[in-house]
């Protein structure tokens, strides 16, 4: 397994869904950063289960504990290790179904890869539970980026066929954050939010699940950062997004709509405004040639329906090598989207901080 990500700001994930804990080690954190444990906990609280009737009923406190790298409430430059203990563990369902290949789960691929030795309880290392570590790392990255006025904002754009097509004024970010946190699905348009929530409840009653999309916007990221070819910002963000269980697609700016446009429609005209070069629109998503343009970085990810559902499905009993019908019962989210929103922000922050450290835009030590 490759459990580390990043070049200078490197994160290493460890732990399993039903193990003792979930954790993250952060190497390359600049020394001298004020350590805001309250902010890290707030970010984790947005991701944790049991938040509402449309999330997993698993009840976890998800209390963040610091093991190393902090002294006198500041980062020291040493590796920062953060953990969350798993408390509400019920592995009985996984013991009951361990011989069944759950449709669209990792059971068969991990069986072939690891010879039956991987932890199958709650999907082990492949569970969305491990993203708690991503969020802890992202919370520290966000604190550093905020010092440079770089803000990252994600929200639910669609659930199923319910799509929010409105273009929101991103210069009113605090207002948008407030609206999003009023929504149980983390949408901005509260009318659309109610329709999305109703749809999730409907599929939940049917013992089914549903997917959706999340849009992410990065404000004030400096121009000229990133690299061409194999070190493009799009490449690194995409790699980070696909480390999040459940993500099945990504598009930047106009994305797949660009395939239906003419060049005259897709091209973003350059202008001078307030003595600054910018574009009149942003179909490029703030990145050209893998390098930032100074315009907002914008991308959208597709989230698949939760694989764990109670609807009867055909599968294989691997022990008996026979076809069977399988009906799963357990604790799961009928829709992953709302809890993935903070994870998308976190992994974006991790990528962009690493980029700016590589570019020497951010120092390795914050002076007193």
Commentary on this structure:
By secondary structure, this protein is of the alpha+beta class. It has a single domain, classed as 4-Layer Sandwich (Chorismate synthase, AroC fold). The protein is built from 9 helices and 18 strands. A hairpin with a 2-residue loop joins β14 (287-288) and β15 (291-292). It starts with a strand and ends in a 10-residue tail after the last helix. The mean pLDDT is 92.
* Count of discrete structural domains: 1
Side by side, the strands of the main sheet go 1-2-3-7-4
Could you give a short account of the major beta sheet?
5 strands, antiparallel
**N/C terminus separation:** 39 Å
* Low-confidence sequence ranges: none
Q: Specify the oligomeric state.
A: single chain
* CATH class designation: Alpha Beta
Principal-axis shape equals: globular
Q: Please state the average pLDDT score.
A: 92
How many β strands by DSSP? Answer: 18
What structural class do the secondary elements suggest? alpha+beta
Radius of gyration: 21 Å
CATH-derived topology: Chorismate synthase, AroC fold
CATH evolutionary superfamily: Chorismate synthase AroC
**Distinct helical segment count:** 9
Helix-residue proportion: 25-40%
Strand content: 15-25%
Compressed to H and E, one letter per element, the order equals: EEEHEEEEHHHEEHHEHEHEEEEEEEH
């Amino acid at each position: 397994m490759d459990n580390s990500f990043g070049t200078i700001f490197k994160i290493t994930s460890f732990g399993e869904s039903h193990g003792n804990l979930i954790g993250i080690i952060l190497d390359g954190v600049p020394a001298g950063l004020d350590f805001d444990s309250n902010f890290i906990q707030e970010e984790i609280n947005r991701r944790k289960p049991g938040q509402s009737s449309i999330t997993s009923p698993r009840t976890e406190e998800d209390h963040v504990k610091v093991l190393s790298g902090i002294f006198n409430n500041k980062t020291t430059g040493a590796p920062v290790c953060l953990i969350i203990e798993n408390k509400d563990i019920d592995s009985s369902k996984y013991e009951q179904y361990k011989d069944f290949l759950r449709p669209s789960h990792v059971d068969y691929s991990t069986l072939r890869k690891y010879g039956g030795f991987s932890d199958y309880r709650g999907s082990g290392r492949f569970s969305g539970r491990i993203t708690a570590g991503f969020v802890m790392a992202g919370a520290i990255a966000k604190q550093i980026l905020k010092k440079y006025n770089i803000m990252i904002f994600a929200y639910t754009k669609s659930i199923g066929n319910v799509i929010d097509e409105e273009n929101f004024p991103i210069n009113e970010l605090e207002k948008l954050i407030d609206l999003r946190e009023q929504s149980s699905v983390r949408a901005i348009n509260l009318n659309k939010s109610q329709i999305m929530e109703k749809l999730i409840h409907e599929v939940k009653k049917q013992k089914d699940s549903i997917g959706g999309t999340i849009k992410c916007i990065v404000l004030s990221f400096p121009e000229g950062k990133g690299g061409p070819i194999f070190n493009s910002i799009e490449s690194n963000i995409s790699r980070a997004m696909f480390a999040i269980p459940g993500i099945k697609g990504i598009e930047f700016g106009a994305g797949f709509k660009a395939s239906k446009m003419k060049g005259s429609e897709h091209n973003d005209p350059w202008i001078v405004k307030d003595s600054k070069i910018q574009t009149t629109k942003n179909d490029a998503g703030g990145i050209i040639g893998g390098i930032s343009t100074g315009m907002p970085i914008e991308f959208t990810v597709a989230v698949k329906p939760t694989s764990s559902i109670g609807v009867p499905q055909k599968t294989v009993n691997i022990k008996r090598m026979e076809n069977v019908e399988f009906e799963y019962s357990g604790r799961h989210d009928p829709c992953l989207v709302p809890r993935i929103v903070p994870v998308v922000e976190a992994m974006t922050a991790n990528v962009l901080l690493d980029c700016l450290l590589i570019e020497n835009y951010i120092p390795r030590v914050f002076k007193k």
